[in-house]
Structure formats: C-alpha cells, structure tokens
Amino acid sequence: MDAIILQILNGLDKGSAYALIALGLTLIFGTLGVVNFAHGALFMIGAFCAVSMQRLLQLSFETIDETQKDFLGNPLKVKTPYVESWFGPEVGATIIDWSVPLAIVLAIPVMLVIGYVMERGLIKHFYKRPHADQILVTFGLAIVLQEIIKHYYGANPIPTGAPAAFRGSFDFGVLLGFDPNVIIYPYWRMVYFAFAAVIVSAVFAFLQFTTFGMVVRAGMADRETVGMLGINIDRRFTIMFGLAAAVAGLAGVMYAPINSPNYHMGMDFLVLSFVVVVVGGMGSLPGAVLAGFLLGILEAFASMNEVKSILPGIDQIIIYLVAILILLTRPRGLMGRKGVMED
Q: Which residues cross the membrane (predicted)?
C-alpha cells in the first residue's frame, strides 16, 4: 500500500505538468482550431522566466570589506546583491530565496505578450489552412524559440532552487498512519500539485462564470452565430491564446525547481502533452485535465523497478500503449466531442 501511495504522489506532479500544458493546447485548439506544436516551447520559456528572475535578483556590485583580508593582508572585494543593499541583508536574502514564486510576476506579462505576438504575427495566417500546415509552421517556430534560448542561456541545464522553506521532504506516511520514513515526498512537488489545481480551477471558473468566458464558450460551439450577434469573437480568441500561453508559462515557472530548465525541455513535454490531449478528447478541457493526471500516474507506476524487471522499457511506452487502447475503443478520446477533427 505504501508503494502504491508513493507512486500516485509521484504521478501527480508530472501529471500536473501534463494537465496544464494540455489545458493550454486544448484552449487554443478549441477556440482557434489551431494545432499548436509551439506550445511546449511556451512551457520552456516559462521555466527560463524563473531562471531570469533568479539572475536578476542576484545582480550585485563589488565593495571593499575591511573586515576580510587576503593572505597578504589586503582587504577583500565582496559582491553585494542590489536587493540586499536596498532592503537590507535579511529581507534581500529572502527575496532572492523566493525568486521562483516571484518569477510569476515576470512570467505573466511576458507570456501574454509572446502569445499575442505569436497569434497576430503568425498563427492567424493559418486558421483556414490544413492541420498539417499548422503543425509544420508551429513546430518550426518551436525550434526557433528553442535555439534562441540555447544561444542566450547555453545548452546545459540551469539549477533553479525552490525556496528554502520547501526544499525538504514531508513524511506523508506518518500522516496516513504508516511508520516514519516509509512515504517521503518533497514539499515542492506538493506545492506544484496544489498550484496546478488552483490554475486549472481558475481557468474553468473563468470560462464558466464570467461573461467573457461564456462568450468564448459560445464561440467555441458556434463561431459564426456569435459573430453575427455583433461580438468581435476573433479579438476574444486572441486574448484566449495569450491566456493559454500564460498557463503554459506558469506551469514552466513552477516546474523549474523540479526539473532544471534546459533548452529542449519543451520538446520533452510536447509530444506527451499532445498524446494527453488526444486521449482526453480533442477540444475537451475536462478531458485534457483528466487524461493528464491519469497518464502521469500510469507513467509513475510503470517506472517502478518491480514493473520494469518484468517488462523492461515499459515506462517509456506506457503512455502510448494506453493511448492506442483508448483510441481503439473510443476514437474521440475519453471526453471528445463529435465533429472535432472528423472532417
């Protein structure tokens, strides 16, 4: 039982990333009808927003410290971060320590702008083109963005630490009545799952309970009729593209301490996220979230040594096997809508 609970927990954080990326993908496909293969790159850019914020807060200047001497007796030069000089050593150190959560403030406007520029500058020209054309152009855009990140940040992963308060592990087993040190789970992975739950809930609440969201949902169901009512549905869909980019970026920001940002991390998640979207059902937001968590947990169980000893390599193909089985029995996915990509 303890192994089962641990694998469920392990699957939740990766499933959270899958769900958030798939949610953004589904928002774009459901509103604009575009298969966006650059969405994984938006996840990557979000992670590098966390890297940028960390570096920004660590900018420093040199001063002479008369209390420290080198072996010749000369005073040493020490680097003092600007935030520590502005807010004091303790407050400044705390701000630097919390650079990843603070990167959300940077990521939201950056991702909204990138999403808007992508949609207005490129995507809008492919609305009426075949899905194959959309895949090719957005995949090419993803490669361009990937190479830009590689040029400015290098090819190696960049460690990005979580706040010190969340760097330890929580004895989850004791909470459930198990012996101590049986089920140990990192605090930040729990934070990431909670963060994903908040973002998913916020997106669904926005679409369900706001006038803007209701119009968007109506436009997703019948774009022409909404347009004839005098509503500029294209402008609202452009905003939704920016929001979808922001969701992917926020997912990347908070995932940075779990997986050190690197220039190809977007591609690593992209293919799996598209499998999640297809399994959940193209155009179905609840299906994307459900499939994300389901496949994340299945992947965690397939990674167990006991399972891999029986079926070597199963952890690499389990998601695709499940996708094949689901699509053979339910061609539209778990919660797919009739008529989506069936023309």
A: 16-35, 95-114, 190-216, 237-258, 270-298, 310-328
Token representation of residue 330: 């339910």
Neighbours of 157 (CB within 10 A): 14
Q: Which H/E stretch holds residue 65?
A: strand 60-69
Can you tell me the distance from the alpha carbon of 297 to that of 312, in angstroms, rounded to the nearest whole number?
18
Task: Using alpha carbons, select from 106, 33, 49, 28 the residue that is nearest to residue 273.
Answer: 28
Q: DSSP assignment of 259-303, as one string? A: S---TTHHHHHHHHHHHHHHHH-TT-HHHHHHHHHHHHHHHHHHT
- Locate the domains of the chain by residue range: 2-329
Which helix (H) or strand (E) covers residue 171, if one does? strand 169-171
Closest CA to 33 of 133, 113, 116, 142: 133
Neighbours of 139 (CB within 10 A): 18
Q: Locate tokens 């339910």: which residue? A: 330
Distance CA 236, CA 325 (A): 37
pLDDT tens figures, 185-241: 888 988 999 999 999 999 989 888 888 888 888 877 777 888 787 888 888 888 888
Helix, strand, coil share (%) of the chain residues, nearest 5: 70, 5, 25
Dist CA 101 CA 10 (whole Å)? 22
